[in-house]
Write the structure tokens for this entry.
Amino acid sequence: MKLNLKKYKEQLQDWQEKGYHIMAQYDEDKIIVYQSYRKEIGNFAIKNQYFGGAFSLERMTWIKPINIDQ
């Protein structure tokens, strides 16, 4: 899937001023959703290739990573 990229400041112009926004793209096979994390969570995930360290599944979010190999 080729992602359509846009700079954040350009994207802001397309959003309503109030409310929640989900940054995502999809095709017939998959949905890709952008979710930001604190720097230490992102650095751990890049280094170790999995979520861990300061990351917690108990954290208040509705997007949860899954292991598709299970």
